[in-house]
Each structure stands twice: as structure tokens, then as C-alpha cells.
Amino acid sequence: MATNALSGFPPALVRRLVIKIGSALLVDPAGEVRVDWLRTLVADVAARKAAGQQVIIVSSGAIALGARRLKLPKGGRGSLEDAQAAAATGQIALSQCWASLLHEKGITAAQMLVTLDDLEHRRRYLNASATLERLMALDVVPVVNENDSVATAEIRFGDNDRLAARIGQAARADAVVLLSDVDGLYTANPHADANAMLIERIERIDARIAAMADTGSASGMGSGGMVSKIQAAQIATGAGAHLAIISGKVDAPLSHWANAGRGSIFLAAESQGARKGWLSGRLTVLGRIIVDAGAEAALGKGNSLLPAGVAQVEGVFARGDVVDILNQDGRVIARGLTEYDSEAAAKIAGRRSEDIPGLLGEMSRTVLVHRDHMAMV
Ligand code: GLU
């Protein structure tokens, strides 16, 4: 499909859309909600809904807003306790703001606060997915944020870019748009390099694309930089959704994008099916299994991973945990749920299937990662 047809993610081509708004767009430097701008965005949302598009909002801004109210240093990001208190205080104001602006347009808002864990566990993920589906059917606009006031440091999304992609996946959205303080992905950092060029269309996220990301958030307010946006693009496109990065620094940013067409679109990859898509988009991976060239070729043909092809096992994991499978060059080629814990996996690495009962007992399984529980990356 031509990128220009997709530009603006028109309701005719994108039935369900996730819109992510970063902290720097929502909150001004003085710590107040940029209500006038937000009203123009809500007008865009209302127009899209009237044209038949279903919309889910992923809104940052809780920490930035709360920090101001509580007069906390470093925008509330000085410590985890500060960030959590700021999030708890800011979230209530943020929700109130969204609810009232959407209400002005006759739209009912719903709030969903999720943690990384909620989306990494299959049953909870399916639960969140069912809730989103029901809200869509009820014609409500969900406003989603990370539940920052309870999530602990190690198990946080930390940025709403990847959260938006995961929500897009859970909601089976057709596309995700990240409203940012930059208008897309550039060949180099546009603030530092005058020759940097905007890339309008990205068909595959390869090493060259990943290298274009610049770490850190330009605004210093949110936590997502280009790296988290590219990871978000990986999750969304792997789940069969397009992802765009556009500028939110103009009024009515969605109409502006639809008219002016400036932005970067990562095109959806062929969907691997819902369960495998969820697996490949998972963010917590507990172990690494390095395989030989023969096993790499076998996996490429759709086979399960047998212990014989395993060169090395790294990490501590239990049966059923998610592991990455890497080739000899150290590149992740697949991700799957392991049939063995790390101790047993190390024991049978490189051994032929017929040796396994002798090593682990008669009832042992012959595959290390079954192809039904594996997604190629
Ligand atoms: N969830 C955070 C907040 O509401 C924002 C995370 C981000 O910066 O993307 O403040």
C-alpha cells in the first residue's frame, strides 16, 4: 500500500487507532495542562469518531503534572518514591481533564491503568484485551496510562511508547500514532546535524534503522526517546499494525498530519497470529539460548528447537518462561516459551534426543522450545 494513502491514518483504512500523547505536549513547562492545545486534539478525535474510527488514547503526563503540584524537584523523577507520589497525584488531574474535554464533544471516557506485568502475563493480557474490546463496542474512548504509582522500577514500561504499542496489540488496533516533539525518524539527530533527513516510510526495522535512534527524550519531561519509539514500532508492526511518529507541536495534530502529510510510518509486517505476536512483543525475557547454524536453519523452516542444536544456555529461567533464541552471530532470531528450566536445559544442550531420558528421566520431553510456542523475530 502506498504510504501517502496511509498518511493521516484515514478512517477508511484504519478502523481502530491508538493515539499516544507525550508528557511534553500535555504539560507546559510551568506544570499546567496545555488545555487549549488538548482541546484541538480532542476535536480531531471527535471528527475521527464521527467518521467511524475507533480511538484509544494512551496519555502520559501524570508524573509531570503531579510533580508540579507537589513541588518535587527534577520533574518528579528524582527517585522512584517521588515519581510514584507524583504519578498518583497527577493521574487524577489528568483523568479529570480528559474526561471533561471528551465530554464537551459528547464522548464518554474510560480510564485504564496498567502495569507491564498486566500485559506480560497471558491471562491478564487477554483480560485487558477483552475490556478494551467491550469499551470499543460501547463507543467509549479509553484513556490508558501506566499505573506508575504501584509499578516497581524493574518491572515498569517506563515509557508510554512501548505501552501504546502493547495496548495496540491487545486492542487489535490497525495502527498506532505517537504524537511527539519530533516529526518523525531522521537519518541523524535533527537537533545536532543539519543534513539529517526525515524517513517517511520504513518497511523493515533493520540494524540500519535501529542505529538512527538517539537515546534520551529531547524535552527532558517524558522518558521515551527515539529508541523506545523504534521498539514500539517493532512491537506494533510485529503485531500487524502500522505505527507513525508525527509532530504534536501543532494544533489539531491529526488533521494537520492528514493535510500536510509529514511524519514517519513504519508499515505493518505480516501478522504471525495473535498469540505469537504477543509472544514476540513481550518485554521481559529471562534467558538466552544460543543455537548452531543447523538449528537456525531448522527454525527458519518452522521446526521446533531440539537440544542437539543448542550451543549455550544463559540466564536463570523456569519451565514456561520466555527465552530469546540467538544465532552464532549473537542476533535474536526467535522468542519462545521453554519446555525446560535453565538447569535442565544446560544439561541437555548439544545432546541428541535419544540421550535425554538417560539425563533427565523417562518422562522428559524431546523439544526445548516447541514451534507452537515460538515466534520468529
Ligand atoms: N506514565 C508516565 C506519566 O504518565 C509517562 C511515561 C513516559 O514518559 O512516556 O507521567
Map the helices and strands.
Layout: H1 3-6, E1 16-21, H2 23-26, H3 35-50, E2 54-59, H4 62-70, H5 80-104, E3 109-114, H6 116-120, H7 122-137, E4 141-146, H8 160-170, E5 175-180, E6 185-186, E7 198-199, E8 201-202, H9 207-211, H10 226-238, E9 242-247, H11 253-260, E10 264-266, H12 274-280, E11 287-291, H13 293-300, E12 310-315, E13 322-326, E14 332-338, H14 342-348, H15 356-360, E15 369-376
Parallel strand pairs: 1-2, 1-5, 2-4, 3-4, 5-9, 8-10, 11-13
Antiparallel strand pairs: 6-7, 9-10, 11-12, 13-14, 14-15
Helix pairs in contact: 4-5, 8-10
This protein binds glutamic acid.
Radius of gyration: 22 Å
Specify the CATH architecture of the largest domain. 3-Layer(aba) Sandwich
Q: What is the approximate shape? A: globular
Mean pLDDT: 89
Structural class: alpha/beta
N/C terminus separation: 23 Å
CATH topology-level fold name of the largest domain: Carbamate kinase
Describe this entry's structure for a reader.
The chain has 377 residues and is of the alpha/beta class. The chain is 38% helix and 20% strand. An eight-stranded mixed beta sheet has the order 3-4-2-1-5-9-10-8, with helices on both faces. It has a five-stranded mixed beta sheet with strand order 12-11-13-14-15, sandwiched between helices. A two-stranded antiparallel sheet has the order 6-7. The chain starts with a helix and ends with a strand. The relative contact order is 0.11. Bound molecules: glutamic acid (GLU).
